[in-house]
Structure formats: C-alpha cells, structure tokens
Amino acid sequence: MSNTCDIDTAVLDQFKNLRFRKSKSNAALVLKIDAKALMVVEDIVLDDITMEDLASELPETSPRYVILSYENRHGDGRTSYPLIGVFYCPEASSDQSRMLYASAKSYVFQKADIGGKVYDLSDSEDLNDAWVTGQLKGASIRP
C-alpha cells in the first residue's frame, strides 16, 4: 500500500519517547506535514501541559496531528495515561490541506501505535479535559 506522506525518522523516535515517558502529567507531540517534501515532521513537543494550553498552540487555519499522553483520573481513584490521537482539522483550512492531512491520517496514527483512540477535532476551543475524557468514555462532549 502506498502512502501519501512519509514520516520523519525523528518523529518515529518521538512516538517511542512519548509512549514510554516516566512523567506523570499530560504531554503532546504536535505534527505537521511539510507539503513540499510530503513528510510528516514535528511541529512542537509540549510537556506538563493543560488541554487549554495545547489548544492555544494549535493554528486556526492549518490541520495538525496530535499524539497525546493524557493523565486520565478514573472515578475509582485509579490514574491511567492512555496514548490518544487527535486529528485536528479546522474548518478554516484550505481544501488542499484538509485532503492532504486526511489522506495520511490512518498511516500516522498507525505508526504511532494509537489503536482505536483517534478523535477528530475541528475547533481548538473545544479541546479541554471534559472533551478528552468524554471521548475516552465514548461520549461526544460539546461545550
């Protein structure tokens, strides 16, 4: 199967670093596509962040892939750190960008070994703890 884009080897290393990190807080790897090289590259790495801080880092007119290590506190007192994927595709993005990012979405999250925890987001203002925990529980939480 042919892929629209390749993934930079540094990004593949970042996937491993995020998956096996020891810190007990939220962290995110934000990825973008270099359209000229058709390469998925690192945009920004964020450690010990809130969802609101992450939302403020996302551009208003360009899609991004977000690999998120999320501190999920359960009702019974347990804490887990699932690795989830967020496909951020704002409505203000160009059709060309939307199609390019959508075409590589499955490949990127497969390489990150996310599994079934990939969620679509079109408005960065919706990105908060309630939205993430709602997605993890299988419900769509809209403010």
Name the features:
143 residues; alpha/beta; Severin; 27% strand; disordered C terminus; ADF-H
Give a written overview of the molecule.
The chain has a single domain (about 5-135), classed as Severin. Helices cover about 30% and strands about 25% of the residues. It is built from 4 helices and 8 strands. The protein has helices at about 10-20, 50-55, 95-110, 130-135, and strands at about 5, 25-35, 40-45, 65-70, 70-75, 80, 85-90, 120. It has a 6-stranded mixed β-sheet, covered by helices on one side. A two-stranded antiparallel sheet has the order 5-6. A hairpin with a 5-residue loop joins strand 5 (about 70-75) and strand 6. The longest helix has 17 residues, at about 95-110. The protein starts with 5 loop residues before the first strand and ends in a 6-residue tail after the last helix. Mean pLDDT is about 90; it is low at about 140-143. Its main location: cytoplasm. Keywords: Cytoplasm, Nucleus.
In short:
The chain has 4 helices and 8 strands; from the N terminus they run E-H-E-E-H-E-E-E-E-H-E-H. With 143 residues, it is an alpha/beta fold. The protein has one domain: Severin (3-Layer(aba) Sandwich), CATH 3.40.20.
